[in-house]
Design brief:
Elements lengths: L1 H20 L7 H25 L3 H4 L3 H4 L2 H5 L15 H5 L4 H10 L1 H8 L6 H21 L21 H12 L19 H10 L10 E4 L3 E4 L7 E5 L4 E8 L2 E11 L6 E5 L2 E8 L1 H4 L5 E8 L6 E12 L3 E2 L3 H14 L17 H8 L7 H13 L8 H10 L10 H4 L1
Antiparallel strand pairs: 1-4, 1-10, 2-3, 2-9, 3-7, 4-5, 5-9, 6-7, 8-9
């Protein structure tokens, strides 16, 4: 039965092939050439018409997974509405104008058709779950082709450097010299950046989480809420990532800790910093906790000659959950160093970590963070890494790390070297 069915399909195909391959008996070579030429035009016209029909915004948003997600995001950007009235549509940004690259892009886009047919991203939840994967693939493609789509409209040669801010002009000139891909610096300008909660999970796998013991010191792996006592549900503030704490007690999934740092004697003194005169945040307390004598004890006061502000050296005694703590900070610094090197060197030559001092790094870092994709924990870790390895500490932090990681620490001896000096 199956054999007969196959024969019935193959027999007409063989007959058609014999007809097409048999030399013409009644048509001249000229007639065949003209007919072939006309048929070629018809075929090419039909093909090109179909190609252009798939190269319109209407076609792109005919799929509701696009119409209901990235399309509304585009409508809130300068690429949709601006003073010049020039609108960038979906194919302007995602399809090169060059024919060869356009065909290659259309072949790549067949995966999107497959995803639409089989419902890979047919709900907002599915789309968000795949957003990072899709964005990363698109960023990689644009980076590899030097952002050909962007350069359909934007040209380094046409840019007026004098109309830019000095910093923007400096960076754009450097990018123009090496014909840098636009997407290296300008992610998230048309669509929302993907959620990067997974980055924190990568950090958790990069360090060894410790079971805290009383009398030892640990580092906070992720930002953690703090509480006034072992059972309170009301938060009294937040510990910053990579902050060192000394565990003094344990009870029912929480640990009591002591934190030593400095705060400015202005306002309520809610921000606890790592060192005197340096804005390296260890914790941010609520007003009630910052003003509680049972929580904060002032050890000494000192005037900063640079700013004229009075700083207080304090200890803070509070409670936090016993999770996400490590006794080894090296894995965190390695993670931060890798993240800084990979994320912050895409737009320009990467500054050496020790090029700036600890108080300069926050301003520099905040100026760059809009162009990269990091969650809050990763941002805080990278900034703290830059500050603690800045010129202020002149390379001494490697010695500090070694001392922390090689010794069994007590609350009295485990304070960072910079604090004890």
């Amino acid at each position: 039965m199956i054999r007969r069915l196959i024969q019935n399909v193959i027999r007409p195909l063989k007959s058609l092939w014999k007809t097409l391959s048999r030399p013409a008996q009644y048509l001249s070579l000229g007639t065949i050439a003209i007919a072939s030429f006309v048929m070629g035009i018809i075929f090419w016209g039909g093909f090109n018409t179909a190609l252009e029909a798939t190269n319109t915004e209407a076609f792109c948003i005919s799929c509701h997974s696009m119409r209901d997600t990235v399309y509304p995001e585009l409508q809130g950007t300068v690429h949709w509405s601006n003073h010049s009235g020039v609108r960038a549509t979906c194919p302007d940004c995602h399809v090169p104008h060059n024919w060869t690259h356009k065909i290659a892009r259309k072949m790549q886009a067949s995966k999107e058709v497959w995803g639409a047919v089989f419902g890979t991203i047919d709900t907002p939840e599915k789309f968000e779950a795949k957003r990072l994967e899709m964005a990363s693939r698109e960023w990689a493609r644009l980076s590899a082709n030097k952002s050909l789509e962007c350069k359909n409209c934007h040209s380094y040669k046409s840019m007026k450097w004098e109309d830019m801010s000095p910093l923007a002009a400096k960076q754009m000139k450097a990018a123009a010299e090496r014909d840098q891909s636009c997407i290296d610096c300008h992610k998230g300008i048309a669509h929302h950046l993907p959620s990067t909660d997974g980055r924190s999970h990568q950090l958790l796998t990069a360090v060894n989480i410790s079971v805290p013991e009383v009398g030892k010191n640990y580092y906070v792996v992720l930002q953690k809420p703090v509480f006034m006592n072992a059972t309170s549900k009301e938060e009294a503030g937040m510990l910053n990532i990579a902050t060192e704490i000394a565990v003094t007690d344990k009870s029912d999934g929480r640990v009591k800790f002591r934190l030593e740092g400095w705060r400015k004697r202005i306002g309520t003194g809610r921000i606890i910093n790592e060192d005197f005169g340096i804005n390296i945040k260890e914790a941010e307390l609520t007003k009630g906790a910052a003003q509680s004598d049972a929580v904060v004890k002032v050890l000494e006061e000192k005037v900063d000659d640079v700013t004229g502000l009075t700083w207080q050296k304090v200890t803070v005694d509070l409670w936090t959950n016993d999770s996400e703590l490590t006794d080894n900070v090296s894995g965190m610094w390695e993670f931060a160093s890798t993240t800084y090197r990979e994320a912050c060197s895409q737009c320009h030559s990467q500054p050496e970590v020790a090029h700036f001092d600890a108080n300069t790094w926050p301003g520099m870092f905040n100026g760059m963070i809009a162009f990269v994709n990091m969650d809050d924990d990763t941002q805080n870790l990278v900034l703290k890494y830059l500050q603690l390895h800045s010129s202020t500490y002149a390379g001494s932090h490697a010695q500090i790390d070694d001392q922390h990681n090689q010794s069994a620490k007590s609350p009295e001896t485990a304070l960072p070297l910079a604090k004890r000096q």
